[in-house]
Design a protein that fits this description.
The complex is a heterodimer. Helix content of chain A is 70%, strand content 4%. Chain A is mainly alpha-helical. Chain A has a two-stranded antiparallel ribbon. Chain A has a two-stranded antiparallel sheet with strand order 3-4. In chain A, helix 1 packs antiparallel against helix 4 and helix 5 runs antiparallel to helix 6. The longest helix of chain A is centred in the C-terminal third of the chain and has 46 residues. By secondary structure, chain B is mainly α. Classes of the chains: A mainly alpha, B mainly alpha. At the A-B interface, helix 5, helix 6 and helix 24 of A face helix 7, helix 12, helix 17 and helix 18 of B.
């Protein structure tokens, strides 16, 4: 038996690396900072695997059921006699799974960045921020209570802010970082209020007490109503609001596409594999509470997830920037995960959606990180983000090409790649919940295959004879090794027995494949691929014709359904013109004006009464006596009352 | 006796410095004396912490007769609330002195003398337990500030100083009137001592109007909406170091006054009016945030941000719960550290570029990355990021508001978003991007780097270990409310 408390080092090592590189990085050669950060994350990855192995196969299971283990705990802030905020390490199946995801992807991205960021100004700053992010994300994953999660949640937001704005001289990057921070912080206010309501109802922040399905806490507050829903439903919806902000669910999704202004490894790590799934992780973490006392909230989550997945998939079909296509694809896939949680029941096979969501989170992290890193290799080679300026790259970038193709096949749900297994489970879960949502998810599966292969064919095939300024060349080994490793993970991750490891109640159940659902979904994916191949394999003018035929749909999709413009209208026009300016006017003229007016009146009065200061003693005496009398009278009056 | 020493050392420093006019000596001496004061206060606070605090509210109390026939005596004492306040006063002073390092003012012994005199008066305000002595110190704080503003202020200083004077003077009159009224209700023989005031026989209708006299007097100092209109202009034209002391410490006089001389004295008035005041304060918070977003001058923007923070503080004081008042006291500390850092940033930018207009700035990070980094830490502290002290403070205050009414908490929580908007917006305008105007902006020197590093260290240290400050005041605040509840119920 191994002492699990060493898991406290998992977040502490990146924190130490952050301080070391951040404070002294400029004294080393740039490469030293990169290598130090990477070695740090390598150690974290090894530790994480060890802990996950220990948890899943040695210590976690008692009588066939996985239990939550507190590996470390300390009280941070005492609020009242009963209520206190702790910091610590909690291990359970989803935490152990997320440890593997975060440390793997983070390690890969560190390694990749040594090559990708080579020669950039601020190389050490980049690695310092990556370590800061890893620290915050691992702290979030290991949180023992919802308040600790909130603390690291905010820190993750700041790391994301710093990394999106890494190119701080570029106005678009600066604007994007600010937008991401403010939108998610708005959502986090909901999260915080939700936490407050929850803690006031249940009297605890602690995850174990909160999610104990046979305990007291979970049943509190379900009967108190407020505006047509129980207080618990409100609390859980507000908490979900925080999750929706980080996971960029509609209508809080607007920051994610802009966040692509950050360096590509950052997009891979933060905005594809780890931070943006924090919302899913949050809902999964609180799942028993959702299921027992706020089933309506869960239903809302299912619909928001379903809608976002379709909405984003439609937009992804028309975008031209390769990173933005991937960003909308991320939105769509996270929508899948949210939907799966929303439709899930609790315990055994009922909890299929829960398992499927976490399964998809895992596989998605691998293949989406691969896609982004592949896109980064392409951008690195041709110095452009725009698809129309690419084509025929398969000849120049063979490793990137093959790994990218594997990732595309995985996300399109082609068996036996991992995406097929996890997506299939989600479809099954949706099928048992609601047929409309199920149909939507089928459509999304087709659209996903289409836009991914549109991207693939345009970049790697398409205009074969395109001339580039410099001949594109394959990336260095530090970049291609992570690609190859992630490709391996994307292929084989589907064979991990999630039904035994990560389930809603910790007990294993038997998986089975429903061919009535699996076969059509594969066929739809293949249709999507074929359509994309016909349209984009060679230049043939078909995409333009298609765009003309579907003029309005194309335009709305291309402009992301004008959601950004709506926000702009509300913030710039309404808030600035109709709130901010009048307030400024009010302050200058009413508040300050009144005070100045009082001063003016005093001035006037003193001007009028200056006759009193005549120098005549009798007059002074008279004024003095009458005033004193008046004061005495006033005092007597106040006394007697 | 240590308390008397804490009080007298800055008086002595002030007297000494006024006769010193030589540059090198003045700086050295002024800093050394303020540091000595900090050591004294730290020593006293360590002694304070090791005491058995539940025995009696005021520790180390000392009495000297002055005018015994009127119940006026020099009565000083320390409890948890004043402990944090004198810590703030002593802690920010060395920073304020050193941040003006290459300023012309620093050559002036008179200026340093005024700074120390202000500190002496502040110590008096936080330690006095006789209301007349309190009031005298309260007034004395203003004298050096007024003179400095008139002598060294920026454009239009006469009009703005006059406005500031009239505002604070009206506030003081309102306080004096209320104090005199309460004095005549104290048990015979009448006394101005705190304990006598606690036992004053005040009917609920008297408390009802007394509340407003006391409230206005203290609210002007913080300032709370709608008594704020002196503040942004004053902060903008005052010499940088005076602005720092105004925002870091003088503002806390109003907070302290409410906790010491309002909540315990007129509990029924508080219970009657607290909702009105909370709503007013929260309106003021949103209002000030909107104004901060509008500003074209960086210094004025920071001044408005201070009004916004004051709004939440005002609301939290009247939320009447141990958590929210603990949050208020913690925020007094956190805000003092952060706002003096922010004003230091503004002063440095103003000195280097000759302007504090936001539109002329930008791209400072390109040439001064360390400076921009510290600025960012201060900004993040100001918007209440977890693991900075600003977060703990805002959270405790919002928690207290939630206990009163969840909707108020939601409204109060908007400070976190609005703060993020105006702070990041202006940070971006000043530090990021690519501006040719600031291309020769030099990186800050070693002294400033050390000062900023220390401030950042305090921000994060007290953010990670909030107990360092919270434990000082915990028992006193609990005591305050146990008295409060027994009087209102």
């Amino acid at each position: 038996m191994m002492d699990l408390s060493i898991s406290i080092w998992i977040p502490l090592i990146p924190l130490f690396m952050f301080l070391l590189i951040g404070l002294f990085g400029h004294r080393f050669k740039p490469l030293v900072s990169g290598v130090m950060g990477t070695i740090g994350l390598g150690v974290v990855a090894i530790l994480s695997y060890t802990i996950a192995y220990q948890y899943f196969f040695v210590q976690g299971k008692v009588d066939g059921v996985y239990h939550k283990i507190i590996a470390f705990n300390t009280v941070w802030l005492n609020l009242t006699d009963k209520l206190h905020i702790d910091l610590g390490v909690l291990l359970d199946p989803i935490a152990a799974m997320m440890l593997v995801v975060v440390s793997t992807v983070s390690f890969m991205v560190h390694l990749y960045s040594i090559g990708y960021m080579h020669g950039e100004k601020g190389f050490h700053r980049f690695f310092a921020f990556l370590s800061l992010f890893s620290f915050s994300m691992l702290g979030l994953v290991l949180a023992t209570n919802i308040f600790q999660m909130y603390i690291f949640w905010e820190l993750v937001g700041v790391s994301s802010f710093l990394l999106i704005g890494f190119y701080y001289t570029k106005p678009s990057a600066v604007a994007a970082s600010k937008k991401a921070f403010i939108v998610t912080r708005f959502a986090d206010l909901g999260f915080l209020i939700g936490i407050l309501i929850l803690s006031f109802i249940t009297g605890t922040f602690d995850f174990i007490t909160l999610t104990d399905t046979s305990g007291e806490a979970i049943r509190q507050g379900a009967t108190i109503g407020f505006l047509g829903m129980s207080v618990m439903t409100w609390a859980m919806l507000l908490i979900f609001m925080g999750g929706a902000g980080k996971s960029a669910m509609f209508p809080l999704h607007i920051w994610l596409p802009d966040a692509m202004e950050g360096p590509t490894p950052v997009s891979a790590l933060i905005h594809a594999a780890t931070m943006v799934v924090a919302g899913v992780y949050l809902v999964a973490r609180m799942f028993p509470v959702f299921h027992t006392s706020a089933p309506h909230a869960l239903e809302i989550i299912a619909w928001i997830g379903g809608f976002t997945s379709l909405f984003a998939a439609v937009i992804a079909c028309t975008q031209l920037d390769i990173k933005r296509v991937l960003a909308f694809s991320t939105l769509s896939q996270i929508g899948y995960m949210m939907l799966a949680l929303g439709v899930s029941g609790y315990g055994g096979e009922e909890g299929l959606g829960f398992m499927a969501s976490n399964f998809h989170l895992f596989t998605h992290a691998m293949f989406k990180a691969l896609l982004f890193l592949g896109a980064g290799a392409v951008i690195h080679a041709v110095h452009s983000n725009v698809m129309n300026e690419m084509g025929g790259l398969r000849k120049y970038l063979p490793i990137t090409h093959i790994t990218f193709l594997i990732a595309c096949l995985t996300i399109a749900g082609v068996p036996p790649f991992s995406g097929f297994w996890s997506k299939d489970e989600i479809l099954v879960a949706a099928f048992h919940f609601n047929k409309i949502l199920f149909a939507v998810e089928y459509a999304v599966a087709g659209l996903t295959a289409f836009y991914m292969f549109r991207l693939y064919f345009t970049v790697f095939w398409g205009k074969d004879d395109r001339h580039y300024h410099h001949t594109p060349h394959e990336s260095p080994l530090t970049m291609t090794i992570p690609l190859m490793l992630l490709a391996v993970a994307s292929i084989f991750a589907g064979f991990i027995p999630f039904t035994e490891l990560v389930t809603s109640d910790g007990a294993a159940f038997e998986p089975h494949i429903d061919y009535m659902i699996a076969v059509p979904s594969v066929l739809i994916g293949i249709v999507g691929i074929i359509v994309a191949m016909v349209m984009y394999r060679k230049e043939n003018g078909m995409p333009e014709k298609m765009a003309n035929n579907l003029k309005y749909l194309y335009k709305w999709s291309f402009n992301k359904f004008y959601i950004d413009e709506v926000y702009m209208f509300i913030t710039k026009k309404i808030i600035f013109n109709y709130i901010s300016r009048p307030v400024a006017w009010f302050d200058r003229h009413i508040i300050d004006g009144t005070m100045n007016g009082i001063a003016g009146v005093t001035n006037l009065v003193s001007f009028e009464i200056r006759g009193f200061q005549s120098g005549q003693l009798q007059k002074y005496a008279f004024v003095f006596v009458t005033s004193a009398l008046a004061l005495v009278l006033a005092f007597i009056y106040l006394w007697t009352n | 006796m240590m308390l008397i020493l804490i009080l007298l050392l800055p008086v002595f420093s002030s007297l000494l410095l006024i006769f010193m006019q030589r540059l090198a000596w003045v700086k050295f001496l002024s800093f050394g004396l303020s540091f000595l004061e900090l050591l004294l206060v730290s020593y006293q606070l360590l002694a304070f912490q090791s005491l058995n605090l539940s025995a009696f509210p005021f520790q180390f109390s000392t009495h000297f007769n002055w005018l015994p026939q009127y119940g006026i005596e020099l009565y000083f004492g320390l409890d948890g609330i004043s402990a944090v306040m004198i810590l703030i006063t002593a802690l920010v002073m060395p920073f304020i002195i050193l941040f003006g390092n290459d300023d012309v003012l620093n050559k002036s012994g008179r200026f340093h003398s005024f700074l120390h005199l202000t500190q002496a008066a502040l110590m008096g305000v936080f330690l006095s337990l006789n209301v007349i002595v309190f009031y005298i110190f309260w007034e004395i704080t203003l004298i050096p500030i007024f003179i400095s503003m008139l002598v060294w202020g920026e454009e239009n200083k006469e009009a703005i100083t006059l406005k500031f004077f009239i505002y604070t003077f009206l506030g003081s009159l309102s306080l004096l009137f209320a104090f005199l009224f309460v004095y005549f209700q104290t048990p015979l023989p009448h006394s101005f001592n705190f304990e006598a005031f606690l036992n004053a026989d005040l009917t609920s209708s008297a408390q009802s109007w007394l509340f407003w006299f006391l409230f206005v007097g203290f609210a002007i100092k913080i300032p709370l909406f709608p008594f704020h209109s002196w503040q942004p202009q004053t902060y903008t034209i005052a010499p940088g170091q005076i602005t720092m002391i105004l925002s870091a410490v003088l503002m806390k006089m109003g907070v302290y006054g409410m906790l010491r001389w309002l909540l315990p004295i007129v509990p029924l008035g508080v219970a009657q009016w607290n909702t009105v005041v909370i709503v007013l304060s929260l309106i003021g918070m949103v209002y000030a945030s909107v104004m901060a977003l509008q500003q074209k001058n960086l210094k004025t923007m920071v001044a408005w941000s201070s009004v916004a923070h004051g709004g939440l503080i005002g609301a939290a004081i009247f939320a009447i719960s141990v958590q929210s008042v603990q949050g208020v006291i913690f925020q007094s500390f956190a805000h003092a550290i952060i706002i003096s850092g922010l004003f230091a940033v503004v002063i440095i930018i103003e000195k280097r570029t000759g302007t504090s207009m936001i539109k002329n700035l930008g791209g400072i990070r390109l040439t001064a990355p360390v400076f921009a980094g510290f600025f960012l830490i201060l900004v993040l502290g100001s918007i209440g990021l977890p693991l900075t002290n600003g977060f703990v403070a805002e959270f405790l205050m919002i928690l207290g508001l939630y206990g009163l009414n969840p909707c108020l908490a939601f409204f109060g929580g908007f400070s976190m978003i609005l703060g993020a908007i105006y702070m990041l917006y202006n940070y971006q305008k000043v530090c990021l991007g690519n501006n040719t105007n600031t291309i020769d902006f030099k990186e800050i020197g070693t002294t400033e780097m050390i000062l900023f590093a220390l401030l950042s260290f305090i921000i994060i240290l007290t953010g990670v270990l909030p107990g360092l400050i919270l434990n000082l005041s915990q028992i006193s605040v609990e005591e305050l409310f146990s008295n409060f509840y027994s009087l209102t119920n």
